[in-house]
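Continuing the series of single-chain predictions for the mutant panel. This is the parent chain; the variants come on the following pages.
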Amino acid sequence: MKKGNILVLAIVAIMGGLVAVVAYSILIDNKEKEITARVEQPIGMVNVSGDNTATDFTFAAEKSINAVVHVKTQSTVEYRNPIYDFFYGDKYKGESEPVVGFGSGVIISPEGYIVTNNHVVEGSDKVYIALNDKREFEAVITGTDKSTDLAVLKVNADNLHFLPYGNSDQLKVGEWVLAVGNPFNITSTVTAGIVSAKGRSMQIIRDNYSIESFIQTDAAVNRGNSGGALVNLRGELIGINTAIVSPSGGYVGISFAIPVSIAQKVVTDLIEFGVVQRGILGISIGDITNEFAKEKKLDKIEGVYVSEVRENSGAREAGIETGDVIMKINDIGVNSPAELQEQVGRFRPGDRINVLIKRKGKMKQFGVTLRNLQGDTKIVTIKTYGTILGAKIVELDKDEKAKLGLKYGVRVTEIQTGKLKSEGVKEGFIITQVNNKPVYSVPELEKIINSIKGGVYLEGMYPDGVVAYYAFGL
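Parent structure:
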């Protein structure tokens, strides 16, 4: 081979080697960068719920903090001396002292409507709201609902920051959420956690028609955070923080929030009617456990068991029977009483829903028209008589009368400043007679009171059966 050819081959070989080295170096460098990028990628950029929303909490926090308020309540408590009571009886009025309570609330409209917990404002004489920018307003209670532990307040203000409603049905266990509250009037605070469970029922709402289907989270919620917001990472309201389970009274990792699927309907009803329009099936239900399924010879542990179907109920009219197992409400599966109550609680009297039941192993579908507590499909109204007695009075429903063995009576639902409060009447008191005249309705009570010139003598009882009498002058 000629020297010239050898030289050319040598140069080609050297160039090929250089190209290989450069290519290898680039490949290794890119690989290292890729590995470094994966290692250094912040945890906060992991996607949530399969969408493109990252767990960067700053966006949701910025949207939420100005829509969460501090709620301060003022009430009066009467302290009685038992020795004075013995000698002077009802003539001794005792001493009154102001009591201050606090909690949180969420602005849900720019016009000043605020949602909080009923237990935050229950029994209060006055309610004050402090915004995150330190402005303060006196609030009016628009309506309350013990069954869901919700209340709606209204302040005279415009163009307020508010939280839009989200969709609590789409929440997934393990999804990031923020708990926002303003417990100490030192501006709003934010804590983060995940959804631990859904559809929890803890029997913490003491009411005959309670609806509990809580969102459980591990976001830190403490005393004073009640009524605050549970929000998703888009800054949407998905729940109202309500309770914690703790032997010490402090946060231990278990918090509960009312899902917005319940809260939104309750709030709308309270603003529009002053009382919740609660549609009911007219049945008694129970959870299906392993032991219960064996006892009733059910083939699977699923659904909600119908233990009773009441007379003149929508369920009975539709054909649902005792022993049926409810599988779905409007194509949404229900596997606990809490889940069933949450679904039915979204509807008003007169609404028609589809109920899928399993009877002796076979599926059947029924269309049920929901009724109110009085057994019809009319919209329920609340009549307030506060000009003289200083209290909210409502009609007794048939079930309450039957349970207490009464043929008539009206119930005190909320004590405000006035005659009843000054005489020591408590919420829940049932007025059966005024000046020996039976009271069948709120209008009749009003008519009797307006006809009295002088003293008023109330007879009645409390739900626990204790009979009580009160006398005062007009």
